[in-house]
Every structure is written in structure tokens, then in C-alpha cells.
Amino acid sequence: MKFTAEQIAGILEGEVVGNPDVEVSTLSKIEEGIKGALTFLANPKYTHYIYTTKASITIVNKTFIPEHDLETTLIKVNDAYKAFSKLLEYYNSVKLSKEGIEQPSFISDSSKCGDKIYIGAFTYIGENVKIGDNVKIFPNSYIGDNVTIGDNTILFAGAKIYSECIIGNNCVINSGCVIGADGFGFAPNESGEYDKVPQIGNVILEDYVDVGAGTTIDRATLGSTVIRQGVKLDNQIQIAHNVEIGRNTVIAAQTGVAGSTKIGENCQIGGQVGFAGHLVIGNNVKIQAQSGIGRNIKDNEILQGSPAFSYADWSKSYVHFKNLPKIVKKLNEIENK
């Protein structure tokens, strides 16, 4: 896929300085630019690379004035970083602009599919499924009975959506996700063995939810596990049954949230954080990586540690943690005297 500088400038509402007909077919960092590549300059620390880059086109701010001769054609815009991001979105939309139903695939006669959809080969779509417009389901995906998928949602290869689940509009479900598997519900019986507790609820993803590769979200025992609008989940996260995650909360990789915990809105949660079950986490909470959360958290708290406590207190205490051997040695010397 090739674009000229003039075409790109038209998309970005920018100004070409150089050859408007030069073509690019790939993207690169400015320091790694090659002929036929498009790059950008936003951080002043990288300015020196613009005089050596081999990239055919470089997006720059309108305020940029070169001090030496350039080999690269410039496209001047108001904000180079935002313009490059916009171009990435455009490139991605073109790359993903697939339509049609590939074979072999199975679609139940009772299912309803919207307009301009793409269903990849070896996909299974069960009974009474409702699929909105512009949905893209890549190969080897599984959609269980009575699932609803909203408009403009993308399911990448190998995603699994179990029965009864509801996926909103403009969601992204990455490869290897499992949404709606049984929650971890078992009850001990008289013989000391464990009987499975039926999990008859579902999972609801509201609009604009992103779910990273390999992440699992369990169905509720009763009711719904709910991921609210705008939530962003990284790869390899475990969300247990009956959990609720509030709007616009972001969670990094390998975090685990135990059953029935409620996480508030606009929270920022680092990687490998562990939540105990049945907790209530407030809004605007920030939790550092590898923290262990075993209590309810109020709004606006910033936490670190396992068990986690105030980030400010943790930072002060860390100075003493790493000096414990010296402190103990001094105490022993004082006792000996």
C-alpha cells in the first residue's frame, strides 16, 4: 500500500515542503528511517536525526525550521505527534478494511448479521447471535448462543465469546481472549470433595472497551460481570465472576481481580496487582505494580506494596527497608556496649 506526500498531507491537512510525489509504503522511527518510509519528529531531542534520516517523508511541526539541507520531504502540521497518531489510525483502518464471509465457517440460521461485516474462515457463530454493522471477526473465533455484538467491534483471531454475553459498540477483543467462561465456583461436600456451583450469569462489555490478548473475563454466578464504558485491559489479565470495573479504568498486564470486587471509575492499576474478593475500590485510585490489595480503598488513594498502603508512606519506608541490615548491625553494637 503506497501513499504520496500529497495524499498524506491531504489526510492531515498539512503542507508539503519538498517533493509532493514521493511515495512511502512503510513506517519507521526517525533514527531508523529508510527509503520509502514515513516518520515524524515531535521530540526536540531527536531533531539531529532529521538531517541524517533516510526516510522519504517526515511529519514535523509548522514551527520547525531546518538549519541544514534535508534529504527527506517534510509535511508540516500543527502537532506532529497527534498527526502521526491520526495517520496510524487511518493506516490501521485501511489495513483492517475487510468485508465478506470466508469459508469454511458456520453461521446459525437463527443468527442476524449487520451490514459490511467480515467473518474469517473457521469461525463458529451459534444460535440467536446478533452482530451489528461493520463488525470484524477474524479467523478461528467462537461466538456462543445468544451473544450480542455491537457496531464497529473487532474480534481478532481466536477470540472466544461464550453464550449469553453482550459486547458493546466500538470494542476491541484481541486474540486468545476468553469472555464468559465459568467463574471459579465450587462448594465442598460431605466427602471432602468439591461440587461445581453452576455459573448461569453472563459478561457485559459496554462501549469502547479494549481487551488485551489472553485476558479472561468470567461469567457471573448470577447476574453479570460488568466492564463499563471506556475500560482498557492489558494482556493476560484475570477478571473473576461478578466483578464490576468502572468507566475509563485502565489495568496493566497480569493483574488478577477476585470474585465480586467492584473497582471504581478512572482508576489506574499497574501490572501484577492482586485484588482479594468482595472489595470496593473507589474512583481515581492509583495502584503501583505488584501491589496486593486486601481491603476496601477510598477515592483518590495512591497505593503500593503487599499488603498495599499509602504510596507516600511506602516510599519513605523503602529507605529504611533497604537499610535494615545496617540498622540491625548498629542496634546489636549498641546492645553489646
From TrEMBL:
This is UDP-3-O-acylglucosamine N-acyltransferase. One of its GO terms (molecular function) is UDP-3-O-[(3R)-3-hydroxyacyl]-glucosamine N-acyltransferase activity. Its EC number is 2.3.1.191. Residues 21-89 form the UDP-3-O-[3-hydroxymyristoyl] glucosamine N-acyltransferase non-repeat region domain. CDD domains: LbH_LpxD (cd03352). Keywords: Acyltransferase, Lipid A biosynthesis, Lipid biosynthesis, Lipid metabolism, Repeat, Transferase. It catalyses: a UDP-3-O-[(3R)-3-hydroxyacyl]-alpha-D-glucosamine + a (3R)-hydroxyacyl-[ACP] = a UDP-2-N,3-O-bis[(3R)-3-hydroxyacyl]-alpha-D-glucosamine + holo-[ACP] + H(+). GO terms for cellular component: membrane. Homotrimer. GO terms for biological process: lipid A biosynthetic process. Belongs to the transferase hexapeptide repeat family. LpxD subfamily. InterPro entries: Hexapep, LpxD, Trimer_LpxA-like_sf, UDP_GlcNAc_AcTrfase_non-rep. It holds the Pfam family LpxD. It comes from Formosa agariphila (strain DSM 15362 / KCTC 12365 / LMG 23005 / KMM 3901 / M-2Alg 35-1). Catalyzes the N-acylation of UDP-3-O-acylglucosamine using 3-hydroxyacyl-ACP as the acyl donor. Is involved in the biosynthesis of lipid A, a phosphorylated glycolipid that anchors the lipopolysaccharide to the outer membrane of the cell. Pathway: Bacterial outer membrane biogenesis; LPS lipid A biosynthesis. The active site is at residue 241.
